[in-house]
Design brief:
- The chain is built from 19 helices and 17 strands.
- By secondary structure, it is α/β, with parallel strands linked by helices.
- The strands form four sheets. It has an eight-stranded parallel barrel with strand order 1-2-3-4-5-6-7-8, surrounded by eight helices. Strands 11, 12, 13 and 14 form a four-stranded antiparallel beta sheet that branches. Strands 15-16-17 form a three-stranded antiparallel beta sheet.
- A hairpin with an 8-residue loop joins strand 15 and strand 16.
- It binds 3-methyl-2-oxobutanoic acid and zinc ion.
- The site of zinc ion has 6 residues, from loops.
Length: 526
């Protein structure tokens, strides 16, 4: 742990709180890829998942614990023996591990959800911290819904958790109810009234229901909190969590005011944001702070004029500092492998020679279809390459489809199974994409309800690549797939096939969310 009192620990929960939000679920390979990107970004703690939630969650926490050395790997557990034991088991091989236990403390949660008395809450919290402590020294305790908890009781639970051995006290604003000065008051009160406060790290965990997650987190840092829990692109339950890129750049840009620092390599902020968007199919809005497409675009003439005279007139951060390459270099048909390799590096990707070669092959095919290749095109090629081959039960061989005025659209998709057999089942649909998706379902025998379908252009221009995202409901979870191609129907087929492959691989199993609180009561107690 850093000894500098002004160092803020970045606790990333993209793979836990972020991943549990609709449309953001990731499979094992994707989680590993994100965990490595978070490690490279320089986060201090990766909350890798909620091991008891499902066998899939357990496996991913275990794999990250084993294969991503560097940051502390945390696993979430409710305050009961089964959860804590499962988290400890998943984290067993991590060089640096943390068990994060949580239990609601607000009167509303006690009365309606847990049906427990305040005394029972304290007893359970203490037993659980002690049990976790039996597995590792580093134990975080979160009084869930702290921002709506009566202060005296909150301080009492926190004090008992510290006495039991908690090393981090995380104060969640679970429902995004706090406002900055209110949240700052809570931290100040706890630091003053909880015995042992000087021995623990205060942490903040804010949800963005009122759009205040970053502001609340900053207010708490002013009161001495030194860990901030956040997610890339701010993904998370409902309106999401504190956005990592925003809190980090606020601390860095206003160093003069906060006098704090993080260990984040800010030049990887945009690449990490883009990676998450590619993996989940969930894109940030254009005007999103730091990582949105327009975050550094100056449109108004008066601004452009000022920028030309001196960038500091209208620019508080340099685009390069967050990982937006400074050159406007575009690539095309005649660009060579070295230029492409350089661009891939500038965009923040680490690839080996074999991967560069495969990306270059795909680049040449694309360059035949498209005059100018932009950064977004290259990112799409790289991500396709990095994620291909991880889940290919079915591959697309070819397809034909027809759509003409007054005639029902039809499609025939030929698919190859990994066991060697080939299928082609023609289908009629409401539109050509619908027909293609139906033909895939008939061929694979996997029937799905599509809950969302989106197509967007990766760059400008009529020859732009189209990115299709297909979202389906399966086993109570939302799964999404993504495909990129200059032919949007082919992109749609690829996206749908990605979902089919995830299901065929049975990587997706029903699971519990930390907020499905059946459980503090129904599983064995600590
Ligand atoms: O929002 C919340 O309260 C949580 C806890 C599990 C820390 O995510
Ligand atoms: Zn949360």
């Amino acid at each position: 742990m850093p000894t500098d009192p002004n160092r803020v620990l970045v606790f990333d929960t993209t793979l836990r709180d972020g991943e549990q939000s609709p449309g953001c679920s990731m499979n094992l390979a994707e989680k590993m890829d994100m965990a490595r990107a978070l490690r490279d970004l320089g986060v201090d703690i990766i909350e890798a998942g909620f091991p008891i939630a499902s066998p899939g969650d357990f496996e991913s926490v275990q794999a990250i614990a084993r294969e991503v050395p560097g940051p502390i790997i945390a696993g979430l557990a409710r305050c009961n023996a089964a959860d804590i034991d499962r988290a400890a088991e998943a984290l067993k091989d991590a060089p640096k591990k943390r068990i994060h236990v949580f239990l609601a403390t607000s009167a509303i949660h006690l009365e309606f959800k847990l049906k427990m008395t305040p005394a029972e809450i304290i007893r359970r919290a203490v037993e659980s911290v002690k049990r976790a402590k039996g597995y590792c020294d580093d134990v975080e305790f979160s009084p869930e819904d702290a921002a709506r908890t009566e202060l005296e009781f909150l301080a009492e639970v926190c004090e008992k958790a510290v006495e039991a051995g908690a090393t981090t006290l995380n104060i969640p604003d679970t429902v995004g109810y706090a406002v900055p000065s209110h949240y700052a008051d809570i931290i100040r009160y706890l630091k003053k009234n909880v015995r042992g406060s000087d021995k623990v790290v205060y942490s903040v965990h804010c949800h963005n229901d009122l759009g205040l997650a970053v502001a609340n987190s900053l207010a708490a840092l002013m009161e001495g909190a030194r860990q901030v829990e956040c997610t890339v692109n701010g993904i998370g339950e409902r309106a999401g969590n504190t956005a990592l890129e925003e809190i980090v750049m606020a601390i860095q840009t206003r160093q003069d005011f906060y006098k704090l620092a993080t260990g984040i390599n800010t030049r990887l902020l945009v690449p990490t944001s883009r990676k998450l968007s590619m993996v989940t199919g969930m894109h940030v809005q254009r005007n999103k702070a730091i990582v949105g497409q327009n975050a550094f675009a100056h449109e108004a003439g008066i601004h452009q004029d000022g920028m030309l005279k001196n960038r500091s007139t209208y620019e508080i951060m340099k685009p390069e500092d967050v990982g937006i390459p400074s050159t406007d270099l575009v690539l095309g048909k005649h660009s060579g492998r070295h230029a492409l390799k350089q661009r891939i590096q500038d965009l923040g990707y680490q690839t080996d020679e074999a991967q560069v070669l495969r990306i270059f092959e795909a680049f040449k095919v694309l360059a035949d279809r498209k005059k100018i290749i932009y950064d977004a095109d290259i990112e799409a090629l790289v991500e396709n390459q990095l994620h291909s081959g991880t889940m290919e039960v079915w591959t697309l061989v070819n397809f034909s489809c027809s759509a003409s005025f007054g005639v029902p659209p039809t499609a025939a998709v030929t698919l190859k199974h990994q066991d060697g057999r080939t299928v082609c089942e023609p289908a009629v649909g409401d539109g050509p994409v619908d027909a293609v998706l139906k033909s895939i379902q008939r061929g694979t025998g996997i029937e799905l309800k599509v809950s969302d379908y989106r197509v967007r252009s990766v760059t400008g221009g009529l020859d732009a690549q189209g990115e299709a995202v297909v979202e389906v409901e399966f086993d109570g979870r939302k799964l999404s797939g993504r495909g990129v191609n200059t032919n949007v129907i082919e992109a749609s087929a690829q996206a749908f096939l990605q979902v089919i492959n995830r299901i065929a691989l049975r990587q997706v199993r029903p699971r519990l969310k930390p907020t499905d609180h059946v459980s503090q009561e129904t599983v064995p107690t600590a």
